[in-house]
Amino acid sequence: MVPTEPQREERRLTTILSADVVGYSRLMGRDEAGTLAALKAQRRQLLAPKAAQYRGRTVKLMGDGALMEFNSVVDAVRFAIEVQCAMRERNAAVPEDRRLLYRIGINIGDIIVEGDDIYGDGVNIAARLEGLAEPGGICLARNVYNQIKGKLNLEFNNLGEQEVKNIAEPVTAYRVVLDDKATTFVTPLVEIPIKIGRVRGWQAIAALVIAAVVGGGLAWWQPWRPEFEPASVKRMALPLPDKPSIAVLPFNNFSTDTQQGYFADGMTEDLITDLSNVSGLFVIARNSSWTYKDKPTKVQQVAEELGVRYVLEGSVQREGDQVRINAQLVDALNGRHLWAERYDGPAGQVFALQDKVIRQIVAVLEVKLTSDESAQVAGAETAVPQAYDAFLQGWYHYRRHTAEDTAKAITFFEQAIQLDPGYSRAYAGLAAAHWGIINRYWELAVGVGWQRSYDALNENLGKALENPTPLAYSVSAEWLARQGRAQEALAQIDRALALAPNEADTHVSQARILNRTGRAEEAEKSVRLAMRLNPHYGPDYLIVLGQALFHQERYEEAEEIIKRAAKLQPTLGQNYLTLASIYGHLGRTKDLDPVKKKIDQLWTGWPPPTVQETGFWWYGDIFQYDEVYRERLQAGLRKAGMPEGAGTDLKYADVKRLIHQRAGEYDVEGATKIDAAKANVLHARNVVFIDVRNNIDFGPGHIPSARNLDLSSALSKESLSPLVARDDEVVFSCAGKYCFRSAFACAKAVLWGYKRVYYFAGGFPAWKDAGYPVETSSDGLKTN
pLDDT tens digits for 694-706? Predict the structure, then answer.
């Protein structure tokens, strides 16, 4: 086979012109219908014929703005002069506060071409020059000035080097002086007569096309014609929903300070969140929208890949205390812009600006808001702009989902609360961050102990629920489910979805809880809805779906889904244990060898996984999910030949019978619950302490002289009896009061006949917090 040369992107050097209406938002606010009519008339009567006269191509319209390209730099400048001089004449009789004025910027640059659209720094510089132009004026790049200074008899003002956003080097700009010299370039509208006679067919067609263009018949100003290539329903990856569907693309950061990217991202995500609260809309999740961030993307491509009709795009500019939001809503199926608007105001009014965008979208799409939805859209989450800014910085780091960024997120959320002690969403953010630390076992990497994260979770979640947001309800539901309070958890999920019915992650949380409680078919429906809302979903969604299919004994389907999750997240051992159970049920022993090999690799340095251990953590806690589902998982692992684990001579039902849980904490019948002070007294009497954490956690810090017997791999009647006689005192501990392992160990010891069992619920964290001595050992040092 002859190798083919990789496809190269199309590039070309061209002249780019960017134009924008001055004060468009103000004009629309005064007279929306009149402003739109005047804008369309100017496009039809002036811009279209002049563009044809100077051989310009309109690349796209952006509400009140336009992006054009010209083969000739002279033609581009002459076009701009004609437009500005004509607008000056037309505005002479118009009251000053109702005049339509353009700013125009022109640059020569190398561009990337994708279909009919163009991208690149050449385009960006033209847009920045337009922003430097005065109302009714024209601003040129130095390369444009150098090309025309000997060809056009014009006067120029050198503006010097200008720092512009997202452009590394300063740009030297020139302003065209629109004096009497400039007016000499004004020409009448060019009209090309159509001669009917003996002409060839193609000549007649060409003449008709030219006449249509010059007469102002360009497609982009005709309301019945598409402005760009429409999306195709046939090409859509997913079927269109039965309600108005929309994707919000990440807004560009047009601020001079490139570090304000978090602000633009946060504003975009808030718009997605606010739209997600509207039950009459179908809103694509943030994760899927973000796959298009910083990429040249066509609207029809977005619509077809995500299966939506409408796309919202725009930009955010923040300069000092002022914020500007540019937004435009596009109907991808019709190939037209429905509206475009600019919203300006101080940072303290940012929520009011967002509210205007949301209400404009709702009005255009003719969606009715319920009274609750209307109140929710209008609500301001904080009256302190600096607190909102700190929250957005925290949310930016939280969304990166790393231990380091989570630590940074916590700092910013705490700063937001210091600025506004009543900021409910910041409390919810803190709760979510600590919940992430707990679930991802990041306590050592972040420098916050496991128990401290639980304490912070409870404290901040309580504050967040005083004025709850969907995020607060969602985190609360996950934590309640971990405590075995499934019905309360589902009630919280219902409250979260009532506030934000389009929030994909909340539907996944609902599916997790349904899986725990023996309702796999419902769980499957919830996670599949989440996948439709978030087509670019990650491995977490696949894991939940795979578990739902597994519980329905649809093992082949579950295998396919879990293998996809493992491909995306190859270091997560849970996936391979699930596959081992699937292959055990299917009797496919030949497929088990590579899975077991992967498990051995991932558990290097850790206690080997066992049937009992997997039952402990597959849903986070051995006591908290449907026993039929638990038995199904463990039965598959046994068939796969996984080791059972230590201390399996006792029936699970007998152990569970002795343990009682309330608000995440445990009590054990037959064992005495003690605090750190009592533990210290017993320690001074040389009572044996058994720490049932794994050796990785035990090594970096433990109670002096404590013995480490991992609950699932080492604690058995045979391993305990050489250390403690049945009439001796013995203390069991682990990682804190929410760790079930020490409660489980106490129940086993009681059933083995031990009479003086102490349950140190606070465990090592409580011991350390009390200031008692701490010991370390090399046993816990991970070797891989």
Answer: 888 898 899 999 9
